[in-house]
Amino acid sequence: MERTTTVVVGAGHAGLAASHFLSERAIDHVVLERGDVANSWRRERWDSLRLLTPNWQSRLPGQPYDGSDPDGYMAMGEVVELIDRFAARTRAPVRTGTTVTSLRRTDDGYHVRTDQGEIACRTVVLASGACNRPSVPRLSEAVPGTVEQVTPFDYRGPDQLPDGGVLVVGASATGVQLAAELRRSGRPVILSTGEHVRMPRTYRGRDVLWWMDASGVWDQRHDEVPDLPRARRLGSPQLAGTPDRTSLDLNALTATGVELVGRSAAVRDGEMLFSGGLRAVVSLADLKMDRLLNTFDAWAATTGTDDEVKPAERFEPTRVPSATRLRLDLRGGEVATVVWATGFRPDYTWLDVPVVDEKGHLNHDGGVVLDSPGLYALGLPVLRRRKSTFIHGIEDDAREVVDHLSGHLARRH
Amino acid sequence: MTTIDGIDNGVNVQALLDAREALKGAPEAAQFTWRSTTRWENGVHSTTTVRNFFGLGAEQTHKAESTFTADHPEVFAAEDHGITPIEYLLVGLGSCLAAGVASVAQNRGIQLRSVEATLEGAHDIRGILGADSDVRNGFNGVKVTFNIDADASREDIEALVAQSQKRSAVFDALTNPTDVTVEVA
Fold first, then answer.
1. Are A154 and A140 within 8 A, CB to CB?
2. Do B88 and B72 share a structural domain?
3. In angstroms, what separates the C-alpha of B173 from chain A's closest C-alpha?
4. Which of A228, A264, A268, A283 is most worth mutating to test chain B (most B CB atoms within 10 A of its CB)?
5. Does residue A231 contact residue A386 with C-beta atoms inside 8 Å?
6. Are residues B153 and B120 in the same domain?
7. ipTM beyond 0.90?
8. Which residues of B fall within a CB distance of 8 Å from A357?
9. Which of A89, A166, A279, B180 has the greatest number of beta carbons closer than 10 A?
10. Residues B125 and B147 in one domain
11. What's the gap in Å between the CA of B62 and the closest CA on chain A?
């Protein structure tokens, strides 16, 4: 059987960054990839999607952004090109078209079975992504068959949906972006909104993600985050990487005619029932946004950055209609499609190692998988820091995780 | 009671935080059943008693039995021995949110001096009378207004109230559909 020291699963930004640091330490390894490099970015994204993060943040180890539009946002083709370029530059030993079908422990490491053969290794880095499958609530099963149901994995653009109204469920980044795009296509759109994270696209003249970076919010370590499980499952902020850098909050959506309703609570007798608690989640999001802006202002004041940015500003509270509807007849023809923008989850079904909890989350401490020496993870939300969720967060994470991995190998010799 | 920097709202937050940790690993112990028994008196007057409940894997008993009288007002041609059943929903919601405000304030180190919630439930009674089939039986809307005196900014007080809704059993029960089964024994 083939043997190597480390198997990296996944050739996205995370797996390739791991490979970069493994090569730096001359640790023998292979990167297994089910499809092509940057596979999810190639095949599992809708057509108009752009990164939320500005281009200057699209940096990888040893590869700063060197394009001409630092404040723009990459389209998917550009992300693929970025990651392809990194793979080529680091000469990562990627084996494309190789799907891992099982991973199990052995006496001296791990046994990796793939559709192209088997590999024995001492350490494994899971970099197969956080968004392998759309997460769709059980209540979808009760939606009448006359209504088309799509997930962000199926969705490519408005033209593909049947004519008629659309109910978009979920108001994180995906939900607000798809609601806006579908509304622009002329369709009536209802947006079902649970808890969400509101952010302005720009604040005091700078990209809000510049503030997250500069003020140090993103550098907060996982062991300093007050409620880590919550931080790790938090939906992505209501942002879109549009060239005009406008905010895509609920006010922006309702101004275009999108109708807000509460969280989708149940389907009963062909009717979708919505929570009457919309105002509560909206005021929580407004309060949390203001709290975040306060921390930015405090940081700007204490660091003398006030002169480099525009004056502090506050945004209009989210407008909620005096009465939102609590039910929608799904058989009445008002809505032809339900879009489930209800999040994503990783796929660990191929792991034959007991490292996943009952909710499907990997048990790990900063990317060091618990109770399974030699097993590591990269590329998950808030893995070691708040910025771990984003492409540029991988550099510090991958360096530190490979440090730990290298220490593990040394101890075993 | 627990004090954080001398803050005391009479809520033992540490016990609640400990329970949260303990129950994370023991979901079966977290399964509670609340019970009440309603006895019809006469007309639209009834008496409900509450004493026992199930939780932490065992039968539990309140320190004392509580009795609640429900009736309807004289404008409903009733004798008004007690409040209307739908008013008990306001009782439940107001007390649940107030408890939440106190707990969250304790956890955040905010000393409360007074908390008062005024609740209004808008009710079109044509629904229950069967006068208009387009009118629902229940509330059309509920409005809760908090007056809070505390050592905190308005923003912090608004955050207390928002968080208390997020963790309120009754707020959830009123704003989200609940499966209700009614049978004849």
1. no
2. no
3. 10
4. A283
5. yes
6. yes
7. no
8. none
9. A166
10. yes
11. 31
> Contacts of residue A195 in chain B, CB cutoff 8 Å?
166
Distance CA B166, CA B159 (A): 10
Put simply, whether B176 touches A (Cβ < 8 Å) is: yes
Structural domain including A294 reads 134-340
CA distance A240 to A174: 9
Residue among A368, A384, A395 nearest A17 (CA): A395
Best of A275, A290, A318 to substitute, by most chain B Cβ atoms within 10 angstroms, is A275
Tell me which residues of chain B, numbers 137 to 156, contact chain A at a CB-CB cutoff of 8 Å. Answer: 140-141, 155
Same-domain status, A109 and A17: yes
Number of domains composing chain B: 2
CB contact under 8 A, B176 and A280: no
Q: Among residues 36-55 of chain B, which lie with CB inside 8 Å of chain A?
A: none
At position A195, the amino acid (one-letter code) is E
Residues B105 and B126 in one domain: yes
- Inter-residue contact A167 to A335 (CB < 8 Å): yes
Q: Are residues A120 and A152 in the same domain?
A: no
Asked if residues A12 and A40 have their Cβ atoms less than 8 Å apart, the reply is: yes
CB of B174 within 8 Å of a chain A CB? The answer is yes
Do A38 and A124 have their domain in common? yes
Contacts of B151 (CB under 8 A, 6+ apart): B110, B111, B113
- Residue A179 is encoded by which pair of tokens? 């609601």
What string of pLDDT tens digits covers the 413 residues of chain A?
Answer: 999 999 999 999 999 999 999 999 999 999 999 999 999 999 999 999 999 999 999 999 999 999 999 999 999 999 999 999 999 999 999 999 999 999 999 999 999 999 999 999 999 999 999 999 999 999 999 999 999 999 999 999 999 999 999 999 999 999 999 999 999 999 999 999 999 999 999 999 999 999 999 999 999 999 999 889 999 999 999 999 999 999 999 999 999 999 999 999 999 999 999 999 999 999 999 999 999 999 999 999 999 999 999 999 999 999 999 889 999 999 999 999 999 999 999 999 999 999 999 888 999 999 999 999 999 999 999 999 999 999 999 999 999 999 999 999 998 65
Residue B43 in domain: yes
Structure tokens at A75: 């389209």
Yes or no, beta carbons of A266 and B177 under 8 Å apart: yes
A128 vs A58: CA distance, rounded Å: 19
Q: Name the residue of chain B whose CA is nearest to A273's CA.
A: B177
In angstroms, the Cα distances linking B73 to A252, B35, B87, B125, B156 are 47, 26, 11, 13, 40
Same domain as A83, residue A70: yes
Asked whether residue B107 falls in the same domain as residue B150, the answer is yes
Residue B155 has its nearest CB partner, among A265, A275, A287, at A287
CB pairs under 8 A between A and B: 41
Q: Which of A263, A266, A277 sits opposite B171 (nearest CB)?
A: A277
Q: Which of B17, B52, B78 is the endpoint of a domain?
A: B78
* Residue B104, domain extent: 84-176
- Chain A touched by B104 (CB under 8 Å): no
